Amino acid sequence: MLLEVNGLCVNYGRIEAIRDISFTVDEGEIVTLIGANGAGKTTTMKTVSGLRPVRAGSIMFNGKDITHTPSHERPVLGISQSPEGRGCFVGMTVMENLEMGTYARPDRKTKAVKDDLARVFELFPRLKERSNQAAGSMSGGEQQMLAMGRALMAKPKLLLLDEPSMGLAPKLIQQIFDIVTEINSQGTTVLLVEQNAAQALKRSHRAYILETGEIVREGTGKELAADPAVKAAYLGGDV
Amino acid sequence: MQNLIDNFFSYTITGLTIGAVYALVALGYTLVYGVLRLINFAHSEVFMYGTFGALWVVMLLGGKPGGSVGQVIFWVVMMFVAAMAMSGLIAVILERVAYRPLRKRNAPPLIALISAIGASFVLAELMGLRSRVAGWVGLDDTLREYVRNSRNNAGLPSIISPQPIFSVGGYNVTNVDLIVIIGAIAIMVVLDQFVKRSRLGRGIRAVAMDPEAAALMGVNRDRVIQVTFLVGGVMAGAAAVFYMLKIGITRYDAGFILGVKAFTAAVLGGIGNLRGALLGGFILGLAENYGSAVVGSQWKDVVAFVLLVLILLVRPTGLLGESLGKARA
To answer: Are residues A115 and A130 in the same domain?
Structure first.
């Protein structure tokens, strides 16, 4: 098991954001968390990447207990996140953003980084065209690509993608999901959070459904997509 | 007005030298604001300790008027080393003692501000009562030269006498003027390159733009904050050397007015923006000198603050403030 989350509870002050959540991500998988606004998806992501403190439960990554590992030490272990809202460094150029992705890499000065940059540019040719442009001057879709590319520059074992399709045009959403599938087939494990449940379930090996801070269902992407209750609640009746 | 026209270059050079000092101190305010969203009001004391560092090292080395060229260069270099080390150290200790514990407990920003003001008084008074501080540890005899008359002006031996090097429009530009202006610009270029190109410099920018995303990249925020205080302190130390070369005297409360002016320069340029701090510093230095030429030097501080208010009325984010606005969006 690459990621093993056990009985996780996270609070915002006195409010319980997530309660007793357990899930796993196996090497090579795409696993999706779906749920409505406020269900706790983003909180779960931020807790896995260390931005939120854990009240109870544990997170195991690659056989190591990382429950209380500070967030800035997690990229070194192989966890990299493209955050909700993209979080691009808007005052930096595209290139500088991508270089920030390598900040924690012990091999950041070797040729390996160049190879990874070439790979990112292959996945996102747009970023290559714009490499000297300020990130803040790019469209939402381009910034999403940049956030994903930057996360990949850390050469993660586990890539966390928080709402990569948010606010994008349908055609672009399709493209982003194609790239997610491609990244995964190149060997990177993906944990995805999405509101676009239809696409996400189609692309995932497995998925969990979150409701008000708890996991209420789990199954393979296909099973959940075919489930009438899931269809009614998350897929607008038809896929 | 005639006075200003007649002596325009004289006021310009003086304005640029004092502006360079404001600019370097302003960098410290703006850097810390960038990563912490905190006005480090004790930064003026970081500067003041630098002036004493510069003074003491010259006393220690027996600096006196009429040294050889080699000696003078040695003394000035040691002033930079001592002042930068002193200010850098004070800034790092300040962060450790006055801010980090509050941050770890998630104290609201207002609390940190009070802590800043308190730290400012403590640091100033420790210097103002240094003869007694030395007495507590039994060093008042050994250090007599350094700690006596703690509350009075302390003057730097005039190791460099201002010599005219060349003349612009009837004003003789001196060796001291040149050291200050060229030195300040050189330091600013180094800082600019550090922030732009070095790994830690980029870490500083990343934390300033988006602390959470920076953490996701593996940037250690505490480390970045510490480096930021250190860099700001070192800049203030350099400013302290220029100040001592130009003004030549300091006192335990010498940081206050200068700190307020430098903070003004940072706001004028757009707080959080490095180039804004530089621009603000030079504009403020020039404006208050031109202003004092026109309405009298006793109005110098009034001119500076009227200018601040006027500029902020037109541009509330400061002259170059928009890039910070973008950074926050």
So the answer is: yes
